[in-house]
Specification:
By secondary structure, the chain is an alpha+beta fold. It has ten helices and 28 strands. It has a six-stranded antiparallel sheet, with no helix packed on it. The chain is globular and about 75 Å long.
């Protein structure tokens, strides 16, 4: 599941480039790490990625980068929580094998001990094959109040074979005193949001316990199609209630099983939780990433993305720098970043949704400068890729090649530009830009006109199925 926006990790995580696609804990993104962790389990088959329309090319490109060609990418037309999303994946799976076991995982978890994870999955598969709806329960290391809890059955006969337990109940995020009692009593686990079950069993329980969800999903699935390698879902999917799998099924079924997982785990729900993932700390207990200099700073998290960050006299502070925004927060209150993002959205601040670099299926563009009547961008086009055949009604463009070789279509002309060569695209000229070479094509684009917003575009033909 890789369709979330991760607003609590703003300003790095934004709507058009959310946290799961960032490399926060190593060279691979959280999404790529999750995929590799799962396909390393025994008897792993096909990868299914559930995501939103805006992230389809990003998910495909990152799967390609780690060599996952055997996959299906399902595009949700609306955010309807986990119970409907998982139903879509189950509907895909039952077309070929209703008894196949689904391993359902969010794409933003950090798990260091992959051996322990795979051992827990091996234990869970036994119950899943027997018809159980299995959830992985994280053995708690402290009385956390940010997670829900799962209580394992402790009465005689309720422990299943191996390290598996019937579920007694699910508990909402507790207060600190109650969480401390859970740890003292034992038998309580953090709710990880990771599940295993047969696709047919899940759909059967969903039909029995929340039929309105399954009815909406079946209708949306039947009206969907395969488009440019993606499985699209009809917009009537939005008719489904927005309900988590916990509320819709797990808390109401008599088939729930919990398998403990005792290794390192984090859902990376905040900057403070990222600091706890094993990133090395300095003598002052600070976690620093990037070009950072500190003097008399303790217990802080400092993340520099584009520029040097210097800190003096800070204590228990979170500082996150990106090219166009900086977050400064008390470390104990960084969960409230989500509220800050809502304020930005209310003011239509662009920093709420996208970075200065915006990714497209053909590559990316980066805003360099702008002012009244002009906008300067750097376009980076991947080998073999093209922007759509298009035209603009309010702006002209001037292109300068700084790297690679560009094939340009302008109205009835087709010509090639090399490094240090340039061309003009007048208002309303039909144009297309292609990188036919083997290295990245880098273009500096200067736009001029009375209206320079991104929606001044008419796509006449597009290789990626965009309207």
């Amino acid at each position: 599941m890789c369709g979330g926006t991760g607003t609590r990790l703003w300003p790095l995580s934004r709507h058009l480039f959310p946290k799961q696609f960032h490399a926060l804990t190593g060279g691979l993104s959280l999404f790529q790490q999750t995929v590799q962790r799962c396909i390393g389990c025994p008897d792993t088959g096909r990868v299914l990625a559930l995501t939103g329309y805006d992230y389809r090319f990003m998910a495909a490109e990152q799967l390609d980068a780690v060599g996952v060609g055997d996959r299906t990418i399902i595009l949700e037309p609306a955010v309807r929580n986990t119970a409907p999303a998982i139903a879509l994946a189950a509907l895909q799976i039952v077309e070929t094998d209703p008894a196949a076991v689904m391993l359902v995982v969010p794409s933003d978890h950090y798990i260091r001990d992959e051996g322990a994870f795979r051992a827990a999955i091996g234990t869970a598969v036994e119950s899943a094959n027997a018809g159980g709806l299995v959830t992985l329960g994280i053995t708690p290391s402290h009385p956390a109040t940010g997670y829900g809890y799962i209580k394992a059955q402790s009465s005689p006969g309720k422990r299943l074979a191996g390290d598996r337990y019937a579920v007694e109940r699910f508990v909402e995020k507790p207060a600190l005193e109650q969480a401390s009692e859970f740890l003292a009593q034992g038998g309580y686990y953090w709710n990880s949001g990771m599940f295993l079950f047969q696709a047919g069993v899940y759909l059967s329980e969903l039909q029995s316990l929340s039929p309105e969800i399954l009815d909406a999903c079946r209708k949306a699935w039947a009206r969907g199609a395969v488009d440019h390698g993606f499985r699209t879902i009809d917009a009537c999917y939005g008719e489904s209630p927005s309900v988590s799998i916990d509320y819709a099924v797990m808390e109401r079924t008599d088939k729930a099983v919990v398998v403990p997982y005792s290794g390192d785990w984090s859902d990376i729900g905040s900057w403070s939780s990222l600091a706890e993932t094993g990133i090395e700390r300095d003598d002052g207990g600070n976690t620093v990433v990037g070009d950072v200099y500190l003097h008399d700073v303790t217990g802080s998290f400092i993340f520099a993305s584009d520029r040097l960050v210097a800190g003096v006299g800070l204590e228990d502070t979170v500082v996150v720098e990106t090219r166009d925004a900086v977050l400064v927060a008390a470390r104990g209150r960084d969960q409230e970043v989500k509220q800050m993002v809502e304020l930005l959205k209310a003011d239509d601040a662009p920093q709420a949704s996208h970075h200065t670099r915006v990714y497209r299926p053909w590559g990316s563009y980066e805003d360099l400068d702008s002012g009244p009547g002009f906008h300067v961008k750097r376009l980076t086009i991947k080998p073999g890729a093209s922007i759509s055949l298009q035209r603009h009604f309010h702006r002209s463009e001037h292109w300068v090649v700084v790297q690679g070789e560009a094939t340009v279509v302008r109205d009835d002309e087709t010509y090639v530009l090399g490094k240090n060569e340039s061309t003009d695209i007048p208002v309303q000229a039909v144009h297309k830009l292609t990188n036919a070479g083997v290295e990245e094509l880098v273009i500096v684009e200067v736009q001029t006109g009375d209206y320079l917003a991104e929606d001044d575009i008419e796509r006449l033909k597009d290789d990626y199925g965009r309207s």
